[in-house]
């Protein structure tokens, strides 16, 4: 076919017959899920501390959104793409260990910040650490699970988003409420810390233990390679291959990016939404909102992965995108309406539906990206996906909401309307883009088959 071909189908089959034992593969998947959970604990805890940080450093919603999203995301992406190239040609286990260690240490440094700039620099470090994790982790899973089980494994991995986010809300809310009652505390060596600083130290520490445990994981064999494919594909080779399937890649990546823009806008501002609209404190928010995130988000991610795997076994070519398409459509009315509810109970019900539907597509969509991508591009494609997710989603989402609140309304109490306006624009856009990916997915699958058999 071209410079980007890798090996014959017979060679692929013989190489791919010796998958890791299921017990080993699922153990690694669980460890990676736990790591993903810790990443989102470290990320989400900031949302629980918006009001005390604003008070401590006298900053606006917009500056808080830069901490949560834009600066974090820029460095997440800046590190993620070069590390992904390494992950396509070197030991991914070592990259995972280094990434977990870095973001955990930098989360602890967030708790030692004495001003806004110090906190900003520490958040940059957290973003840099997390940027190397997801591409290497998903590439590892793709070489540990056959295609009919990969959506389930990636669905499990995606539950970490909700397990971590929910844990930050539940545990973080309880800890913050207790620390606010106690007031500043003195820690040996570290000195006197304000109540908002201590949670960063508490949630950052477990990651260093997990990094040590992950050193015992064995790097799996790469699937579908020729002997000459000892390094990752060149940029020109990647560009040539991606150009053949740009509609499928663009639809899936940008569709998920705008879905996550809606989700990250909520993650960043829903705690403040409950504080400002319903006068809830951190403990109330964590106790009510946290379980909703854990149960609804995690169950959606798990069930979505199972459904995609089932449809794949039934022989549906576009199995990995069928269920996500329905979830994307359901999110449109739900995301627009939840900020406008008149009671916290109604808002929580719709937020629960939103989290379930938002989690549902991940396993299938991630597997869809993997199934249309040659092995030596996988981590880099995930990194490009993370670029879209973090620049458009996590980076712009919270900031768009903050700008509408600060500049559009000029009133922090208008936060619910800022959320509704943001979702009104980006939820339908995400749905339209996924339709583009769905329509062109069969062609992309045929292209990768030709690529590995020519």
UniProtKB/TrEMBL annotation:
Subcellular location, record wording: Membrane
One Pfam family recorded for the sequence: MFS_1
Main location: membrane
Domain of life: Bacteria
Start and end residues of each Major facilitator superfamily (MFS) profile domain: 28-445
Keywords in alphabetical order: Membrane, Transmembrane, Transmembrane helix, Transport
Gene Ontology molecular function: transmembrane transporter activity
Coiled-coil annotated spans: none
Any single Gene Ontology cellular-component annotation: membrane
Membrane-crossing segments per the record: 23-41, 62-83, 95-113, 154-176, 196-217, 249-274, 286-309, 321-340, 346-369, 381-405, 417-438
Bilayer disposition of the protein: Multi-pass membrane protein
Gene3D superfamilies according to UniProt: MFS general substrate transporter like domains (1.20.1250.20)
PANTHER family, sorted: PROTEIN SPINSTER (PTHR23505:SF79), SPINSTER (PTHR23505)
The protein's name: Major facilitator superfamily MFS_1
